[in-house]
Design a protein that fits this description.
- The chain has helices at 51-61, 81-84, 86-96, 114-123, 137-143, 150-162, 182-194, 213-224, 228-236, 247-260, 267-275, 280-284; strands at residues 2-4, 15-16, 19-20, 46-48, 67-70, 100-105, 126-131, 167-170, 199-201, 206-208, 241-243.
- The strands form 3 sheets. The chain has a 6-stranded parallel β-sheet with strand order 2-5-6-7-8-9, sandwiched between helices. It has a 3-stranded mixed β-sheet with strand order 1-4-3, with no helix packed on it.
- It is 41% helix and 14% strand.
- The chain is α/β, with parallel strands linked by helices and 287 residues long.
């Protein structure tokens, strides 16, 4: 890891990324893409100097509270968060100043900060977002090797359910020829139904590949799934969007199960909910 100076922590859209890079090892990670101009090894985590202090100054300048989001480009619960606790410091400031929080992770380390998440949700709104891609635990350990398994992430959803903290699942990516099956989809959706997730974000059943992450993805396919790289090349060439041949069939199943269980599934609806700042009374009315 290494440190770097930054002038701001919050983006103009109130997004917060405290680290750059990742140690979770997901084989499909878009954040590896060259377009993000990361000038250091992806696993050599860049830490933003004095992040909590900078965040506090930015929050103090806000005219009114809003939703603060984190986790879009870098998981806030990387391995080193256990020691550094920068995410914990920053979400404690969000609670202190009465802002809302949407936080996206693949790690059960978030449970260590349940006390703060509850406080935020008691005041305003806290939404915990969890990525689920693979029902098969063995496959999960291959494509997402250094992060909490699917079952461990489901335990996060269950804990949030018990704490009355709303949850959203990111159902992506679904890798063509690997986990683009009805069995995988129904298994994940069953977890979502049983843990009362409020919404599911699905942008189509497939994966995006571009310079930087494509090369790493193909390298990992060669290591763990011999022959599959050539299948991708034959099917998609150098396309950015690689949709599963099963996309239409899976989308019908996805939408049907969501409608039957009252789960938000239209992306505009889910994002509108995530961006909407609400008081405690408004947030509780969702239940």
């Amino acid at each position: 890891m290494h440190y770097a100076d930054y002038k701001t922590i919050l983006s103009p859209q109130n997004g917060m990324n405290l680290y750059r890079g990742c140690t979770h090892g997901c084989i499909y990670c878009d954040s590896r893409s060259a377009c993000y101009q990361m000038n250091h090894d992806f696993e050599d985590i860049e830490i933003k100097n004095h992040a909590p202090q900078i965040l506090e100054m930015q929050l103090q300048k806000k005219r009114k509270p809003c939703m603060i989001s984190t986790g879009a480009m870098c998981d806030p619960y990387l391995h080193l968060e256990s020691d550094l606790k920068i995410t914990r410091e920053c979400i404690a400031l969000i609670e202190k100043y009465g802002f809302g929080l949407t936080i996206l992770t693949k790690s059960a380390r978030i449970l260590k900060d349940m006390d703060i998440l509850k406080k935020i949700n008691d005041k305003t709104k806290c939404v915990v977002q969890v990525t689920l891609t693979t029902y098969d635990e063995d496959l999960c350990k291959k494509i997402e090797p250094n992060v909490s398994t699917t079952l461990e992430r489901v335990s996060v959803l269950k804990a949030m359910q018990g704490a009355k903290i709303p949850t959203v699942v990111w159902l992506c990516p679904i890798l063509p020829f690997l986990n683009d099956t009805e069995e995988n989809l129904i298994g994940i959706l069953d977890y979502c139904v049983k843990t009362d997730v409020l919404g599911i974000l699905c942008f189509g059943f497939g994966v995006t590949l571009r310079d930087g992450n494509r090369e790493y993805f193909y390298k990992k396919l060669d290591e763990d799934f011999p022959g599959l790289k050539q299948k991708y090349i034959n099917q998609f060439s150098k396309s950015y969007e690689c949709l599963s041949p099963n996309n239409k069939k899976l989308m019908v199943i996805f939408q049907k199960i969501c409608r039957e269980n009252g789960i938000l599934y239209k992306t505009d609806d889910v994002f509108a909910y995530l961006k909407r700042f609400e008081t405690k009374e408004q947030q509780l009315s969702m239940f």
